[in-house]
Amino acid sequence: MQKNSEKEIKEASINTSEEDITTYFKATGTEPFWGIKIGKEKIVFTSLIEGKETLIFPAAEPIKAMDANIKMYQLSNATSSAKITIQKTECQDSMSGIVSPYSVSIEIKSNTKNDLQTLKGCGQYITDYRLHDIWVLESLNGKNVAISDFQKEIPRIEIYAAENKFLGYGGCNSITGTLFSEKDLLRFTNIISTMMACNSNNKETEFVKALKSTTSYTIENNQLSLSNSSGKLLIFRKVD
């Protein structure tokens, strides 16, 4: 089997428009170099470790520890087994100096050998690149919207998926905020708006409340739908 190069392992941690959208978490480490991609369909481990250059495991659901900031995955295939622990604490790459929001450890071994290895590294959840665009509001809490529902224009948001941030117009004020993405979860957080006086019939407050209440999304036919457990909250259309 051909060994992975250090460059290939590093590139495996970079999200691009060609990236399989089922991958939702990536991590890398050094000494030796290794990388992992956790997806909805499979989990792929790559490294410079002899015999463990590329290992593919079936997709698995995380085991939530008593500590809410820790998740674990127990993995196995025909040749190997692994335990992945993801902890929500800042982690700095020892070579690049890049700071990631999660620390990751992997215990990995062959099924037929006593060769247990513990690897340390840093990781992050991957925001769906398809969110990266400008979206104009079409529907709010099940009702189509019109300019008359707002001050001057219909609300819009511009999402920067790689930076996990967004900006836009709420219907009266400019708004900015951050995204929190974790597998199928999507939240709009830290929303800040300017302080212009709005008309009494302006639905900006309702729009921002719906945005803050979002927990999940779908993208289909150039439409972005934002929902929570109560149902569909917002529908946007993609604009060029």
Q: If strands are numbered along the chain, what order do they take across the biggest sheet? A: 4-3-2-1-11-10-7-6-5
Distance between the termini: 45 Å
- CATH class of the largest domain equals Mainly Beta
Number of helices: 2
Taken as a percent bin, the fraction of beta residues is over 45%
Strand element count: 20
Work out the helicity level: under 10%
Q: Which second-level CATH architecture of the largest domain applies?
A: Beta Barrel
Mean pLDDT: 90
Can you tell me the residue ranges where pLDDT is under 50 for at least 5 consecutive residues?
8-15
Main sheet attributes: strand count, strand direction, barrel closure: 9 strands, antiparallel
CATH topology of the largest domain: Lipocalin
* Helix and strand sequence: HEEEEEEEEEEEEEEEEEHEEE
Task: Describe the protein's architecture and organization.
With 240 residues, the chain is mainly beta. The protein has 2 domains: 120 residues, Beta Barrel (Lipocalin), CATH 2.40.128; 111 residues, Lipocalin (Beta Barrel). Helices cover 7% and strands 50% of the residues. It is built from 2 helices and 20 strands. The strands form 3 sheets. The chain has a 9-stranded antiparallel β-sheet with strand order 4-3-2-1-11-10-7-6-5. Strands 12, 13, 14, 15, 16, 17, 18, 19 and 20 form a 9-stranded antiparallel β-sheet that branches. Strands 8-9 form a two-stranded antiparallel sheet. The radius of gyration is 21 Å and the shape is elongated. About 3% of the residues have low confidence.
